[in-house]
Specification:
Layout lengths: L1 E6 L2 E4 L4 E9 L4 E9 L6 E9 L2 E6 L7 E5 L6 E6 L8 E11 L2 E6 L3 E6 L1
Parallel strand pairs: 2-11
Antiparallel strand pairs: 1-3, 3-8, 4-5, 4-9, 5-6, 7-8, 9-10, 9-11
């Protein structure tokens, strides 16, 4: 099992910044992808950004709505921590943000989720 603990949500004014972090613990060997999803009231959960580790290379991907404003990074040493730097925040970024990790065991991927952290952007 993998446990994910998120930090860094809160209330910020439009144009401000927040940094989210997520630390994985437990059976972390085999985690090859970590990312952030979000879910706003009345909407489906959507991918914000993720980073996939291929060998020593981290490949990041972003939702179009956050490109140029958000940056995802993975701790190069611990490799069990992922960060999301969110700049130029907009009211439409308001949502519960969930950390996700994918652990591969014998070719099968298993998804793990954090409990979520609220991000509220006021106009």
């Amino acid at each position: 099992q993998v446990q994910l603990e998120e930090f860094g949500g809160g209330l910020v004014q439009a144009g401000g910044s927040l940094r989210l972090s997520c630390a994985a613990s437990g059976s972390i060997e085999g985690i090859n992808a970590m990312g952030w999803y979000r879910q706003a009231p009345g909407k489906e959960r959507e991918l914000v950004a993720d980073v996939i580790s291929v060998g020593s290379t981290n490949l990041a991907d972003y939702a179009d709505s956050v490109k140029g404003r958000f940056t995802i990074s993975r701790d190069n040493d611990a490799k069990n921590t992922v960060y999301l730097q969110m700049n130029s925040l907009k009211p439409e970024d308001t949502a519960v943000y969930y950390c996700n990790a994918v652990r591969r065991v014998h070719g099968t991927g298993y998804d793990y989720w954090g409990q979520g952290t609220q991000v509220t952007v006021s106009s």
